[in-house]
Structures are given as structure tokens and as C-alpha cells.
């Protein structure tokens, strides 16, 4: 049977971290989402949102997909849109990596830029990007994905949770993941909790902007997460605990993953792993902690994540 590029989304490998997990800790496994077609977990989200919008008539034939993005979701939306015959127009910023910019353009996307304050990711920047996307979406045959308010988003990650459960043979004792729109942590954990109802789920956010922990918003450099405000579709009752990880620690772990585990990923993955190691230490031997390799480190070569002496 003929398969399209969209059929390559999902069913990614599950890998065990073998070298950076201290003795006496639980086993840590991670979904290698960089194995998706664009190198990111967001391919799952993009396919679900666009296919459902088209099926419901919200996205018209030859229409344009609009979104505000730190780049990763934009790349995935551009890929899915192109595969299905749609156009795409995204609101982006110089606060995010140039690799993402040129990848979106390679897939045919039109970009509108919002200039940041010294390339810092702040609440004000994100809200300005959202507002501009809303304005662009008013044009004829333009459909705004509006990921923060799109209820289809979490369903895009149900398969991720189902795959983790199957690939671990049902031996998952905790799930740890960064929070942005909250779709990926909720969709994945909902699928896992269908099999283990009381599974502990740990959210992660930047230490510099700990709004989910009850702190104040601030600037940070972990791309794609830490919006500076509580996402509208975030359900606090579905998250057992919020952990914070600093930008410096997230970037340092991304470098360690490359050197010590041969896993090349970005700083949001680094934050996931820092937090997962903390939970693994708490749970101890015999338990299994699952987390996510969010995307490929190839998207961050123009940033300072891997530029060390």
C-alpha cells in the first residue's frame, strides 16, 4: 500500500539512558521523537489539528494555515500543510533559532517577524506573536491553528502515551515532561493513565519563569516552552508536581546527552532529562521513569547550546 510522509509520523523508538543515570536511581527511558519526519514530536500535533480542521470545514481547500510559533510547531505545520496541499503563514521571532526559520521557509511557509527584546523569550513577546497571528487569520481562507486554545492538540499525543506503554511492556512508574501549551503532557499522560490510572505525572518549566509553580514570569532561553503565563488548556489537577530547571542546566544536559548518550537534542529535552533524573533518584532502583526527546539538536546549531570550548 502506498504511504505518504504523514504515515511516517509516530511509532518512534524508545531508548534507555544508560550512562548519565546515577547508580541507585530508577531506569530512565525516553521517546526519540527526533525520529519523526521533521525531527520533532510536534508532527503528531500538526497532523491531528490540520486533518480535523479540514474534515470539519474550518480549513478550506487551498486555504492557509496560520500560527504563532517558536519554530518547532511551525515546521511541523508547514510540513503537514504542504503534504496536504495547503499554504502556511507563521508569526516568528528572532528570539528563536535560525534553523527553524529556514526550515519553515523550505517547506514553503510565509513568515511575519516580531522582534524580541535582546532575543529573550518573554510573556510580552509571546502575547505580541499571538495577537499578530490573530490579525493575519482574518484574511479570506486563512485558518488559525491557535494551538493554545485548540482542543484537538492534546489528542495528537494520545499515540505517544500508547506507544510508551506498549514499548515498556506496561512498566511505567512516572512520566516527566516540559510544559508549553500543555497538549503534549496532557495527551501523553491521559493515554498512560488509561492503563495506570494513578500514574504520577511531573511537569517541568524554566526556573527563570516559574509561573506554574506560583512564581513570577521572567525571561529565559529554553526554546518552545515557558510561555510566561498559564496555558488556557492546562489542567493543574492532571499534574502531580511541577519541577523547575534553569536554562543553564537545560543546555548543559543537552551537551551531556550528545557526549555521553549520543543523543543529539535541544535544551527542552535537556530540561526533561534533568527533571527525569531527579524523579529517578526519588523512586530508586526497580522503577521506570519515562520522558521525551523532544526534537533534534540540529535545530540549535546557530545558538549557544552546543558552542562551548
Describe the structure.
By secondary structure, the chain is of the alpha/beta class. 36% of the residues lie in helices and 17% in strands. Strand 4 (87-93), helix 3 and strand 5 (110-114) form a beta-alpha-beta unit. The longest helix has 17 residues, at 267-283. The model has no long low-confidence stretch (mean pLDDT 95).
What would you say about this model in short?
This protein has helices spanning 42-56, 72-84, 98-106, 123-136, 152-155, 158-167, 183-195, 247-261, 267-283; strands spanning 14-16, 27-32, 64-68, 87-93, 110-114, 142-144, 174-178, 201-206, 241-245, 288-293. The protein contains nine helices and ten strands.
Keywords:
four-stranded parallel beta sheet, Rossmann fold, alpha/beta, six-stranded mixed beta sheet, 9 helices, 36% helix, 309 residues
Q: How are the SSEs ordered, and which strands pair?
A:
Elements: E1 14-16, E2 27-32, H1 42-56, E3 64-68, H2 72-84, E4 87-93, H3 98-106, E5 110-114, H4 123-136, E6 142-144, H5 152-155, H6 158-167, E7 174-178, H7 183-195, E8 201-206, E9 241-245, H8 247-261, H9 267-283, E10 288-293
Helix pairs in contact: 1-2, 2-3, 6-7, 8-9
Radius of gyration: 18 Å
End-to-end gap: 50 Å
Fraction in beta strands: 15-25%
User: Which word captures the global form?
Assistant: globular
- Please give the domain count: 2
Placed side by side, the strands forming the largest sheet appear as: 1-2-10-7-8-9
Task: Profile the largest sheet.
Answer: 6 strands, mixed
Low-confidence stretches: none
Number of strands: 10
Class by helix and strand content? alpha/beta
Amino acid at each position: 500500500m502506498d504511504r505518504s510522509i504523514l504515515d511516517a509520523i509516530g511509532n518512534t523508538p524508545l531508548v534507555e539512558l544508560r550512562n548519565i543515570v546515577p547508580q541507585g536511581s530508577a531506569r530512565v527511558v525516553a521517546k526519540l521523537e527526533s525520529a519523526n519526519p521533521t525531527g520533532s514530536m510536534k508532527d503528531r500535533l500538526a497532523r491531528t489539528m490540520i486533518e480535523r480542521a479540514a474534515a470539519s470545514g474550518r480549513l478550506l481547500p487551498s486555504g492557509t494555515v496560520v500560527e504563532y510559533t517558536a519554530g518547532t510547531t511551525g515546521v511541523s505545520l508547514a510540513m503537514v500543510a504542504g503534504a496536504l496541499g495547503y499554504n502556511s503563514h507563521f508569526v516568528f521571532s528572532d528570539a528563536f533559532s535560525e534553523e527553524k526559520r529556514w526550515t519553515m521557509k523550505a517547506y514553503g511557509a510565509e513568515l511575519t517577524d516580531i522582534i524580541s527584546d535582546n532575543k529573550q523569550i518573554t510573556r510580552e513577546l509571546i502575547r505580541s506573536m499571538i495577537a499578530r497571528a490573530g490579525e493575519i487569520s482574518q484574511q479570506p481562507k486563512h485558518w488559525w491553528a491557535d494551538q493554545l486554545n485548540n482542543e484537538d492538540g492534546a489528542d495528537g499525543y494520545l499515540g505517544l502515551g500508547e506507544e510508551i506503554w506498549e514499548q515498556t511492556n506496561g512498566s511505567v512508574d512516572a512520566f516527566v515532561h516540559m510544559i508549553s501549551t500543555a497538549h503534549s503532557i496532557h495527551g501523553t499522560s491521559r493515554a498512560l493513565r488509561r492503563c495506570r490510572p494513578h500514574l504520577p505525572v511531573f511537569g517541568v518549566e524554566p526556573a527563570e519563569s516559574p509561573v506554574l509553580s506560583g512564581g513570577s514570569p521572567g525571561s529565559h532561553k529554553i526554546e518552545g516552552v515557558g510561555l510566561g503565563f498559564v496555558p488556557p488548556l492546562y489542567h493543574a489537577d492532571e499534574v502531580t508536581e511541577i519541577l523547575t530547571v534553569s536554562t543553564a542546566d537545560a543546555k548543559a544536559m543537552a551537551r551531556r546527552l550528545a557526549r555521553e548518550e549520543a543523543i543529539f537534542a535541544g535544551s527542552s529535552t535537556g530540561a526533561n532529562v534533568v527533571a527525569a533524573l531527579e524523579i529517578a533518584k526519588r523512586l530508586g532502583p526497580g522503577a521506570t521513569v519515562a520522558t521525551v526527546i523532544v526534537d533534534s539538536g540540529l535545530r540549535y546549531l546557530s545558538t549557544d547550546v552546543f558552542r562551548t570550548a
